[in-house]
Specification:
- The chain has helices at residues 3-8, 34-50, 78-84, 107-119; strands at residues 17-21, 27-31, 54-64, 67-77, 96-100, 124-128, 134-137, 142-143.
- By secondary structure, it is an alpha+beta fold.
- It has a single domain, classed as tt1808, chain A, CATH 3.90.1570.
């Protein structure tokens, strides 16, 4: 199955799960808790408020070499949006991709997703833990704070 087929499937449109595809085209579903939605919404709001010249996104599908991964929140510049706005899944990742950790996520899974976002063009990947603390990464290393949004809080309340 590819992402377009998944999006068009009449029985999969209203599931209460985050859906992704692995490299074999298999559906991977993750249940979401309230804190996950709360952090996702707050991060998106702050991105929209703090950055100009682009747009904040939620549930942003990114095509990677290992299937379609879905960033919980993201920010894309106006230039990048021109390219991806009408795509079913982003052919190039937004400049910032954010993952809010779910109870089912493993460290290896999150590291792999971050690497895939970087391979696809992301400049920063942020990881929001279950307690709301954020870790910021470039492709090379962990950052003390976001380079793209230096004043972004290190914890979501």
């Amino acid at each position: 199955m590819n992402w377009q087929e998944l999006c068009d499937h009449p029985g999969l449109g209203n599931l209460p799960f985050k859906i992704e595809l692995n490299e074999k085209g298999q559906i991977v579903m993750s249940p979401v808790k309230v804190y996950h939605s709360l952090y996702q919404a707050e991060i998106t709001y702050l991105l929209r408020s703090m950055l100009k010249g682009g747009k904040a996104l939620t549930e942003c599908a990114v095509k990677t070499r290992k299937g379609t991964k879905v960033a919980d929140a993201a920010w894309a510049s106006s230039k990048r949006l021109e390219r991806i706005r009408h795509e079913t899944e982003c052919s190039v990742a937004p400049e910032i991709c954010v993952e809010v950790i779910s109870s089912g996520n493993t460290d290896d899974e999150i590291k792999e997703k971050a690497a895939l976002y970087f391979e696809t063009g992301s400049q920063e990947v942020w990881i929001c833990k279950a307690d709301g603390t954020l870790d910021f990464y470039s492709a090379e290393r962990k950052l003390a704070h976001s380079v793209l949004v230096p004043d972004f809080p290190k914890k979501i309340e």
